[in-house]
Amino acid sequence: MQKDVLDTVERLKEEMKDSLMEMIAIPAIGPDNDGDGETKRAEFIMEHIKDFGFDSVERYDAEDDRVPSGIRPNIVATKKGKTDRNVLIIAHIDIVPEGDLDLWDTDPYKPVFKDGKIYGRGSEDNGQEVIAALYAAKALTLSGITPKYNLKVILVSDEETGSKYGVKHIVDEGLVSQNDIVIVPDHSQERGKKIETAEKSGLWVKIVVHGKQGHGAAPGSAINSNRIMARYQAEVDALLHEGFTLENPLFAPPVSTFEPTKREKNVPNVNTIPGKEVQYFDCRVLPEVPLSEVKSVFEDTAEDISLDTGADIEVVYLVDKKSPPGTPEDAEVVLKLKSAIKSVTGIDAEVCGIGGGTVAAHFRQKGIPAAVWATNDCVPHQPNEYAVLDYIVTDCKVFVSLVTED
Ligand SMILES: [Zn+2]
Known about the structure:
This protein has two domains: 2-199 and 325-404, 3-Layer(aba) Sandwich (Aminopeptidase), CATH 3.40.630.10; 201-321, Alpha-Beta Plaits (2-Layer Sandwich), CATH 3.30.70. Helix content is 33%, strand content 23%. It is built from ten helices and 19 strands. The strands form six sheets. It has a six-stranded mixed beta sheet with strand order 1-4-8-5-9-18. Strands 13-15-11-16 form a four-stranded antiparallel beta sheet, covered by helices on one side. The chain has a three-stranded antiparallel beta sheet with strand order 6-7-19. Helix 1 (2-11) runs antiparallel to helix 10, helix 4 crosses helix 10 (389-404) and helix 6 runs antiparallel to helix 7 (291-309). It is elongated, with a radius of gyration of 24 Å. The relative contact order is 0.19. The model has no long low-confidence stretch (mean pLDDT 96). Bound molecules: zinc ion. Residues 92, 125-126, 159, 186, 380 line the site of zinc ion.
């Protein structure tokens, strides 16, 4: 039985390619990125899946008057199974803007198929999984198979700009329960060999040194914020790297990371001593480490150097996100996913943690064990983004296996 439906997926390959290309031609950029939202794309999808055999297609739109339609669409398409257990595939329909057009070889919204790859903005992130999940239902329908589990394809808006109108809205509506098997196919490592089950906490810190501006030839009357920032950065960097050495092999790298990143422009000329300096840090902290301990380093160092130099040092947290506990390695979602991947591709997938964030965190926060997995070359948000057609077929087959296998 399962072989029939996997053969059907194979036969739908060309159709999946054409559908993804049609979808790419309808940009879906959120208002935070100056876009019109996702409504046109959602309408295309609703029309497109009419004969896919879903038992119900529901909308859970979130109101947002910043977009012309006034809504941020979320689609829940259900193909009923023999039991009342749900397998949820959560993919997002919004995309990021194309970025610098000069870096693209082709028009990001006029998709091109070349050498087995579909080029266009949002092809990989997350278009290929929208298509793979929807066509899993179509393949089941065409094969006349009722899956064991309910297949719920949940297509959300607003993933790229915070998920308030997407996943958070869906979770708040009570659509996901702890008994559900939740897959988020929106991050891939080693082309499907890794299943992401945990994320590091994120702490983005802005440091502002308020000194006193002066003439480069008369430093005595100034408080040089540039020199003070250099000292601050060196001291904080050393304290963080000496103080937080805990390792967790689930993650690569296995340690917390603390990187000074952006520095704001200060004075325009060489002979002025800057009175204000602004520096940012991007910290990715292992879930076991309390963020309060990391914050203490930033704050205590600011206080020490302030007292010593007379400058005022401000510490602002732009992102302060404690990650929820990871999904256990023996959680049902992980075991089922491993088994489906193995049966389709022969790969023994392993669990891993990542430094970035996915929407899986919103589910884990509610005690729902979610797993993140997909097969791709990992080119999201890049110019010349592409999706490999064979990987779409693979992921569609894995989704079919997930709902048909025990
Ligand atoms: Zn994505």
